[in-house]
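Researcher: Here's my situation. A collaborator sent me these components and asked whether they could plausibly form a single complex. I don't have experimental data yet, so a predicted model of the whole assembly would be a useful starting point for our discussion.
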Amino acid sequence: MYKHILLAADGSENALRAAKEAIKIASCNKEAVIEVIYVADFEKAKSEVLHSTSSEALNLERRQKISKIEQLLRESNISYKVKILHGTPGPEIVKYANEQQVELVVIGSRGLNGLQEMVLGSVSHKVMKRVNCPALIVK
Amino acid sequence: MQSLKQQWFGNVRGDILSGIVVALALIPEAIAFSIIAGVDPMVGLYASFTMAIIIAFAGGRPGMISAATGAMALVMVPLVRDYGLQYLFAATILTGIIQILFGVLKIAKLMKFIPNAVMIGFVNSLAILIFMAQVPHFIGISTMTYIFVGITLLLVYTLPRFIKAIPAPLIAIVVLTSIAIYSGVDLRTIGDLGSITQSLPSFLIPDVPFNFETLKIIFPFSISLAIVGLVESLLTSQIVDDMTGTESNKNREARGQGIANIVTGFFGGMAGCAMIGQSVINVKSGGRGRLSTLIAGLFLIFLIMVLGDLVVKIPMPVLVGIMIMVSVGTFDWSSFKYLVKAPRTDVIVMLTTVVIVVWTHDLSKGVITGVILSAIFFVVKIATVKIHQDNNRFIVEGQLFFASTDAFVDYFKSADIKDSSIQIDFSNSRIWDDSAVGALVKVEDLLREKGIQVEVIELDAPSKKIISKLQGMSSSH
């Protein structure tokens, strides 16, 4: 079964459901590692820096967005890593997944972005089209 | 931090491409900011060229773009209007000298003391002023002016959905300038407001009398420019730090800005600083290293030398449309949520900063007022001391220092104490300074006069230390 699973998270409910599915898959293999990645969006960089007191505070804020997922992973005894990337979410996830040659990408069907919900999660769509490994999109 | 070689040549392809994109995006802004400052477009273009080149070498944040900016242009308006261009060059050089001093004195560290509320106020008022500066160029001129502004806005906001490689403002300029020229519509152009010289900038010494009188004129402007330039540069460097997930040298950046401004002043440019918008464009376009900033400067001057004749034909309404986009992009739109969610005092600081800037047209005055106001709010906030009674024990809550001693003393003055001996519990408090020690002594004396025994308990180590230091000779009980 899959050993290196990438879980793309953005703090949304969908991402949490995706995490649960990723855990199910990872449970099949004792050596499996889930790598949780969170992409700090370039578009929001200015506003996030303006509204945070320091880079440490901003980092904490981002970590908090995936804290629920981390908790789930700890409870399920799955080994995991957390990585915060910077860029445009879709392409950045694809780039990272391909560079690291992960075996499976798990992602929620829709993220937090209200506007893009209408176009059915453009990030998951992009990821699905461009990663070199199987992708699991969780509803 | 990366090695110097890495900072220059770690990302050659990405840096060259992004540098070209930035140069293209810089031209309209450099021209528009010159018009805001009331100088010839060449002054802003030369400034953008020299700033970018020097910062590429001397800056502390690889990948950040510095050039002529709106924030700086707004500050220099009265200087240019009342004293002329030569005084602006002199002020630019002095700005650089002040910034180098700030860098040497490690002022960049003080940036930590500028609260978010002031920073948010800074970008918002900058956006408002850039927008206001456009108004005279499109309100009540002609119907065709409105139409061109409208089409420009339409293009700059829709094109990026389809064309990502070329900056939309540039496409809008090329398309609409061609349409304007061939259709012969009557529109004001950049040429009506100034001229373009197709040559490299040359060394000059500002033609001003070198005396105390001149210094008196330029010094207030230079101080304002130095502060505004560093605030925007250091904010920009934080944004670039975050986007690239790397760190930068803030003091080196302050020094670099100073060197760049000195050179800029001697080469006929206006004072500049780092640009949030352009730096974001650079990083998004793949720029990471110093090379990207250098290429941006070089390609900019190349374009001016080649295309100078065409630049003067750009219709003003197109430039106005682009600047409206710039002001919308500068504004922090999450401020509206901030107004509702942030602590009331932060909101007051933010709004005060905006009001002061819009009123004085000087961003430095807004920043200084905002910092002072938030410092006062901070003192008031931590100066609240509460005391509650638990039998004969009086528990002090809050920090005891010069601003909070009154409340402490007043409480014991008016308290109706029946016990013959009481304890004052400092487990949730700390004695900070001589005022606090004095207040404690005063309260002890006061109570002793009423015949009440006082025991001070639960002092932490720093409080004990300051008490024994200040009160060494007399033990209170």
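Model: Some features of this prediction you could bring to your collaborator: The two ends of chain B are 57 Å apart (CA to CA). Chain B touches chain A at residues 112, 115-116, 119-120, 123, 235, 238-239, 241-245, 276, 280, 283-284, 332-334, 338 (CB under 8 Å).
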